[in-house]
Structure formats: structure tokens, C-alpha cells
Amino acid sequence: MGVTALDASSALVIIDLQLRRRGVTQVVLAGLTTSIGVESTARAAYEHGYQITLAADAMADLDVAAHRNSTERIFPPSARPAPPPTS
């Protein structure tokens, strides 16, 4: 059975048990349409109790203002940006 949702939140519900069995407590999110797909996936992960790290340089949105709103106002209470890569 495939997941046909716009975001991965439906998939997260399906794989939550598998993640917990493996002791996963943190997820790293990236993707397109920050204000829709990434945002709803972050909410689902947060509601399931996961720590959320954002790969901000691997996220984008067609609407720059919506992307900025998500990264500056929506995500900070529940997610943190990934640290910059080291050389």
C-alpha cells in the first residue's frame, strides 16, 4: 500500500511503530514546499514526540514569504535548524 498524501505525515503514522522499535527519537526534515509539506510533516513528527532537526538548506518553497514565515515563526517552537556543515 503506497502513501498518496501531499506530505510525509501520513507515512509517519504508518512508520511510527517501526521507528520506535528501532529507538529513533529524532527526525531530520528537508523537502520542497516548506509551508505545506515540510510544515505538516514537522507537526506530525512533533505530535508523535520526535525531536525535529531541519535541514534548512535543503528546504524550499515557491513563495519566499511563506518559506520565511515557516522557518522564522512556525518552526522555532518545535524544531531546530541543523548545524552548518564542518570542513
Structural features, described:
The chain has 3 helices and 3 strands; from the N terminus they run αβαβαβ. It has 87 residues and is of the alpha/beta class. The protein has a 3-stranded parallel beta sheet with strand order 1-2-3. Strand 1 (26-32), helix 2 (34-47) and strand 2 (51-60) form a beta-alpha-beta unit. Helix 1 runs parallel beside helix 2. The longest helix is centred in the middle third of the chain and has 14 residues, at 34-47. The radius of gyration is 13 Å and the shape is globular. The termini are far apart. The mean pLDDT is 81.
In short:
This protein has about 90 residues and is of the alpha/beta class.
Quaternary structure: single chain
Strand order of the largest sheet: 1-2-3
**Order of SSEs:** HEHEHE
Computed Rg: 13 Å
Instruction: Specify the structural class.
Output: alpha/beta
Helix count equals: 3
The count of strands amounts to 3
| Unreliable stretches covering 5 or more consecutive residues | none
| Average pLDDT, all residues | 81
Task: Please bin the fraction of helical residues.
Answer: 40-55%
Largest sheet: 3 strands, parallel
